[in-house]
């Protein structure tokens, strides 16, 4: 069952890889923003004069809203994605129908990408919260399903 | 061995699901607290007038201790639970006796729930630290056991 | 294939365990630093008079740079290691050659240990960023490899 040639497991693997790449992208996006803003750094040593920072200033380690936004998005990923990676894996072991697994796993991926789009562009809380909630409910559904299966139901 | 009908693996799956649900609950508890406090938000757009926030004010994005407490509890989860999910899975592969696996995996769950109770109610550091340490030592024990097995001991 | 006697999987398990122990060590190192500094705490209740804190003061919950540095290092772990644990596991399922798996998985471990050494000792950003980037690129490589395999390529 844990085999990339198994359609349900491959569905999980694709969703998992997309979410891992999404999470890693937030780190690189933070780097891009810090370079673009020439600030938003966090360490005292980041204001030393170096080849990549020829004109350092103490202001560079002040919080920068454009950088902090990406960090908040990333923090939201950390609160959600590691648990999706584990729950999705265990969910595959319950032997779900392929179509249901695709709706849940790809639905989760889509909800997180829409959450990112809403957060990144500063949409009102209701939009962001809706996409987050969809993903969280999918995660809870899969986890409860595994729990019941493991308990013998 | 990776089968929900295997007693040791089912033990892991139950413990993992409980910890995933615990982690996800922290997000929802943060939401509940933000609604109850009508504050503790973090994004500039969260002070816009919307259906769910009819009377916005800049004070809503000031840190709110009752909300921040839940965020700190969640951060502690992020520092621990993803590693438990991975270590517990690998530990099952070492073929431990069922009773020992139950003590370790369920013991970890109990230690985290007690840690939550102590943190949530603001008990002194010694209480919180004791429960955290029990969980952390279980995690270290399982990880070292896997490491030795993988190295051939 | 998911067997600690399989050389490729054992390589993954060893790398995973080292990274889990590394992540857990950051928590304990934070504790050591807080004791050494007698400060850097984060909760209001941590300034109560207790057996381990006989002379409390409000200054104890002010940010302390020596403690915050460890917290930033740990945060960097949280942004990276859970995704490595998942990606590395899935990568094993693609059946890579042992030597390549060893270079990638142990290379990741070495990159993270060097990142820690650079961060801990406050080296300039370029040094820290180089080690972080090596690990991140290994993670991306493995994830893309799994994605392609799961898609049938």
Mean pLDDT of chain A: 97
Radius of gyration of chain A: 19 Å
Distance between the termini of chain A: 20 Å
- Derived from helix and strand composition plus strand pairing, the structural class of chain A reads mainly alpha
Please report the two chains with the greatest interface, counting residues with C-beta closer than 8 angstroms to the partner's C-beta: A-B, 32 and 34 residues
**Beta content of chain A:** under 5%
Assembly type of the chains comes to: homotrimer
Total beta strands of chain A: 0
- Note the main sheet of chain A: none
| Uncertain residue segments of chain A | none
Task: Please report the number of helical segments of chain A.
Answer: 4
Element-by-element helix/strand order of chain A: HHHH
The shape of chain A is elongated
Helical amount among residues of chain A, as a percent range? Answer: over 70%
Structure summarized in a few sentences:
Chain A is mostly helical.
List the helices and strands and how they pair.
3 copies of one chain form a homotrimer.
Chain A: H1 7-37, H2 65-92, H3 98-120, H4 125-150
Helix pairs in contact in A: 1-2, 1-3, 2-3, 2-4, 3-4
């Amino acid at each position: 069952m844990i085999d990339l040639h198994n359609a349900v497991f491959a569905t999980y693997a694709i969703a998992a890889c997309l979410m891992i790449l999404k999470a890693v992208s937030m780190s690189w996006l933070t780097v891009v923003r810090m370079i673009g803003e020439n600030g938003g750094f966090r360490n005292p040593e980041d204001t030393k004069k170096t080849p990549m920072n020829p004109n350092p200033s103490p202001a560079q380690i002040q919080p920068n809203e454009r950088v902090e936004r990406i960090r908040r998005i990333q923090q939201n990923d950390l609160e959600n994605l590691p648990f999706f990676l584990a729950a999705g894996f265990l969910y595959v072991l319950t032997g779900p129908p392929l179509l249901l697994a695709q709706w849940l796993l790809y639905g989760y991926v889509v909800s997180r990408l829409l959450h990112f789009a809403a957060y990144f562009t500063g949409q009102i809380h209701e939009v962001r919260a809706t996409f987050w909630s969809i993903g969280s409910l999918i995660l809870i559904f899969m986890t409860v399903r595994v729990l019941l299966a493991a308990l013998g139901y």
